[in-house]
Design a protein that fits this description.
By secondary structure, this protein is of the alpha/beta class. It is built from 8 helices and 6 strands.
Length: 221
């Protein structure tokens, strides 16, 4: 698409209603709300990517959290996974502050763009294969528009499988924290465990482990 732009992709993502199950779920969550956020107005729509258009690092996650991005309208914002991600990006010099609580909290990203494989909060954090494939063109377009990207960090095996499939990676190494591979287009792919509470509360992912991923990304970009 010759006239494509990140702004255009963002606008189309926000207006998307292609997956009935996800539309129903995201709107239900936005209406019923979590008790601790009862006084807030939820975003309740698909969540676009966020960051520096000239980024050399692209971070790809799974999908917005029901009471995180689905509430705040910004990817990895307003939940514990976001606290981990933006804290790590701050320590690595990619962010001007270590926290991300709302779309207007002053967070600025430099040399990094953050996106997700699926743009709507899915029930149980599990998109269907059809939902994954329906959403894929948005990531493909961002990929093409982010022309300076040299390194891609995938958070979790779902994002890894999406990026590997999208780029035609063969052979495809088994996912693991710190696994690094060159993609067919010359970019470096680095795998990280997802900073979910399931991983961070149990010590599967520690702060030093997470920081090492972004230190490596900085070296490679």
């Amino acid at each position: 698409m010759a006239s494509d732009s990140l702004a255009r992709v963002t606008a189309e993502i926000v207006d998307c209603s292609r997956c009935p199950r996800l539309v129903t779920w995201r709107e239900q969550v936005a209406t019923e709300k979590r008790a601790s956020y009862a006084g807030e107005e939820y975003w309740g729509r698909p969540v676009p990517g966020f960051g520096d258009p000239r980024a050399r690092l692209l971070v790809v996650g799974l999908a917005p959290a029901a009471h995180g991005g689905n509430r705040t309208g910004r990817v990895f914002t307003g939940d514990r996974s976001g606290d981990w991600l933006y804290g790590a990006l701050f320590r690595a010099g990619y962010a001007n502050q270590p926290t991300s609580v709302s779309r207007d909290d002053g967070l600025v990203l430099t040399d990094v763009y953050v996106a997700a494989a699926v743009r709507c909060a899915p029930p149980a954090n599990k998109p269907t294969p059809e939902e994954r494939d329906t959403c894929l063109p948005y990531l493909e377009r961002e990929w093409a528009l982010l022309r300076e990207v040299r390194v891609v960090v995938v958070l979790g095996s779902f994002a890894y499988q999406v990026v590997a499939g999208m780029t035609g990676l063969r052979p495809r190494p088994r996912f693991g924290h710190g696994v690094e591979v060159e993609l067919p287009d010359g970019k470096t792919l680095i795998c990280s465990y997802h900073p979910s509470q399931q991983n961070t509360f149990t010590g599967v992912l520690t702060e030093p482990m997470f920081d090492a991923i972004f230190s490596r990304a900085r070296q490679r970009s």
